[in-house]
Amino acid sequence: MAKSRDKVQQQGFWDQEVTTAGHDDVMVWVDDNADLVMSRAFPELYGRGWIPDDIEWGIEAAARAAAMEQVEAFMRATPREDPRVKGSVWESPLRDDRHRPSHYQRSVCFADLIISATYPRIYVQEQDIAEHRRAGPLAIGVSWPRIGGHFGVLIEAKSVLPSRGDLIRQLRHYGTVFHGPMVVVSQDDSYAALLHKQGFRFVQCPRPLP
Fold this sequence. Notes:
By secondary structure, the chain is of the alpha/beta class. The chain has one domain (19-204). The protein contains six helices and eight strands. The radius of gyration is 21 Å and the shape is elongated. The two termini are 42 Å apart. The relative contact order is 0.17. Residues 1-12 and 129-135 have low confidence and may be disordered.
């Protein structure tokens, strides 16, 4: 009878590179340099001030123009921070939980690394005056949602790149159950442009690795 790993491999879900020392080297580098990896993977979230897209409105659209003066004053008084890395999980199982009770969920594959990181947003909402249940002054503050929502950021580590088709197929397979951003990390940047066109992100690690 085939072992569980053999069954997974037969279905095309087992990544042979996981067993190599080179793969471990890339994983360790990513884990040790998670802030750097995130800044290169998501440059639009780093080293800048507040922009209108950072505002999370909790008031009616008709009231937003009148609120902008207060929001802009908050932006000027509150420096925007860069995202914060909270942690990482190695070899996280990606499960097919659609229409299944938790004890019947099927592991489809394993993510090399899931990085949990948050980024700053400005929330704007009305304060309720409880005794009258009417709108009061605006409440404006900074929230820190997770990049990628509850999925986080998936890292696919590659010490040696497979064919373009194999890599894209692997990532598409992950995408059947993982709906957050995916980042390929490798010393070889040959596929960087292709990955970007296909909706994935790429970060080049040093050659040789420290």
